[in-house]
Design brief:
20 helices, single chain, 492 residues
């Protein structure tokens, strides 16, 4: 048994002999200290098996003894093997997790990882990431990248690239020898392509999560705008590689020049994959028409659960695209929507309220931090809790909820017994309102698992009569405040 790994240092320290006991007259004269696993390091020579393992550890690239020796000797070898054994020798044969953990921190000492359960996959994913992020694009050899991807593919389940190198811009062809070359920046075709991802992705058949950033880090004085361009050729190469990822669950592109035309192309390829559960396009530029395409994706796809589109420069038209998908498909599997850092008007808040009235069970989490809600728009967003029974979490940090929005929030929470968490940081609400919100949320947490009836003051949702709700949340009627209902007699 390898004590340093199987039994943690904290456990050994907790059960170690106290200093008082060690210096007592009965304990101080002991020659064998059984609880100290290194007591004989300076007293007895190492066994011959240790020196044999030491010799074998230096020639692993020529002799592989792992299939012919006992497990206790393999454990010894794992501590002696150098951490820089070439991957083509170590990957197929070494399975010891402690060796791969040691290799990870030896090659990437600045990276601190927590909660890792599969160090071999983590290390190989980091090696592939390091190669793709730092390879010289002018001498990029596609066969080398394919060989590396093929070697590590059985062990990689996630891949994150924080930068991608930009290849040189191709110069426009000169038609005739006597022709004058046009060097105007507005007439030269701007073709900025990154290192192609298709040949690498086609080999990563176990990949479940991919995170990409099309740009360069630490440019300092070498900043150029073209380093952050994201061309159609890049998008097409990425899409061709995605066709081979049959187990992909999470897809992210962050902090990139991803506009509406490119996100449409990506979504057209991802909509065919039923395994997709999360889409993350935070800090991009998908705009209104990209949001409409995303709404169509939500309407068609049967398994997507989380959508993150913070800071994407969309307005009313984009919100309508998502709202339309939610209204037309109230039983969509969506669990989380993140619209943070997108300035929204009163009309956006009205569209949101109209959509979430019809969604009885999902989404369960809505994040609209720092969206500029104030006044009537803040009342709309807080008042939707009075009709929606699916939300369990609403994040509205960094919005102005002072004034009437506070009263609307309290009235909505008094009626809603499902919401469990509300983020109200930096919302300018009073301490009394904050205390009342905490009290109501505690009440809801105690009711978890119990059957609760809707409050009598809340009218039933006439989903088969949408004109009633359209009247309430009509974008052309921005003066309507949720929670104030006209008298209505259901038709017999």
């Amino acid at each position: 048994m390898k004590i340093p790994y199987v039994v943690s240092p904290n456990t050994r320290e907790a059960y170690s002999t106290s200093t008082f006991m060690r210096i007592s007259s009965g304990e101080a004269t002991r020659k064998i200290v059984a609880e100290d696993f290194e007591w004989d390091n300076e007293l007895t020579p190492a066994p011959l098996t240790y020196f044999a393992a030491l010799a074998l550890s230096r020639v692993f690239h020529r002799i592989n003894p792992l299939q012919k020796i006992l497990q206790k000797d393999i454990d010894m070898l794992m501590d002696l093997y150098p951490s820089d054994i070439p991957l083509k020798f170590s990957v197929p044969y070494i399975k010891d997790e402690q060796y791969w953990k040691r290799s990870f921190y030896s090659k990437f000492p600045s990276r601190k990882e927590m909660g890792v359960t599969f160090w071999k996959g983590k290390f190989l994913s980091a090696c592939l990431q390091d190669y793709l992020e730092n390879v010289n694009p002018d001498v990029f050899i596609e066969e080398d990248a394919v060989d590396l991807a093929k070697l590590v593919s059985p062990y990689i389940y996630e891949l994150g690239l924080k930068q991608l190198q930009m290849v040189r811009q191709p110069t426009p062809p000169v038609i005739h020898a006597d022709a004058v070359e046009d060097t105007c920046q507005f007439s030269v075709p701007k073709i900025f392509d990154h290192i192609p991802l298709e040949p690498v992705l086609t080999k990563l058949f176990n990949l479940q999560e991919i995170s990409l950033i099309f740009g360069l880090n630490n440019l300092q004085d070498g900043y150029m705008t073209r380093y952050f361009e994201f061309s159609i050729a890049d998008c097409e190469s990425l899409c061709r590689g995605l066709e081979y990822l049959q187990q992909l669950k999470i897809f992210r592109i962050n902090r990139s020049n991803l506009d509406c035309s490119k996100v449409k192309l990506i979504l057209q390829n991802l909509v065919k994959k039923e395994s997709i559960e999360e889409l993350d396009f935070n800090h991009c530029k998908i705009g209104d028409y990209g949001m409409k395409a995303l709404g169509g994706f939500i309407f068609i796809h049967k398994n997507v659960k989380r959508i993150r589109i913070a800071n994407n420069k969309f307005k009313e038209v984009g919100v309508q695209g998502i709202a339309y998908a939610l209204q037309m498909k109230p039983a969509a599997p969506i669990e989380l929507l993140d619209f943070s850092l997108n300035p929204m008007s009163l009309e956006c808040a009205t569209i949101f309220a109209s959509a979430f009235v019809r969604c009885k069970e999902k989404p369960q989490t809505l994040i609209v931090n720092s969206c500029g809600f104030h006044g009537a728009s803040a009342e709309k967003m807080t008042g939707l809790l009075s009709l929606n029974r699916g939300l369990t979490r609403l994040d509205m940090a960094a919005n102005n909820l002072s004034g009437e929005a506070e009263k609307t929030l309290i009235r909505a929470l008094e009626q809603n017994k499902r919401v469990l968490r509300i983020d109200l940081r930096s919302t300018h609400i009073s301490e009394e309102t904050q205390a009342r919100v905490i009290e109501l949320l505690d009440r809801n947490k105690q009711l978890v698992g119990q059957e609760t009836e809707a409050d009598d003051e809340i009218p039933p949702l006439y989903l088969n009569e949408p004109e009633y709700l359209i009247w309430e949340y009509n974008p052309n009627n921005p003066d309507y405040i949720p929670g104030r209902y006209p008298e209505r007699v259901p038709e017999v």
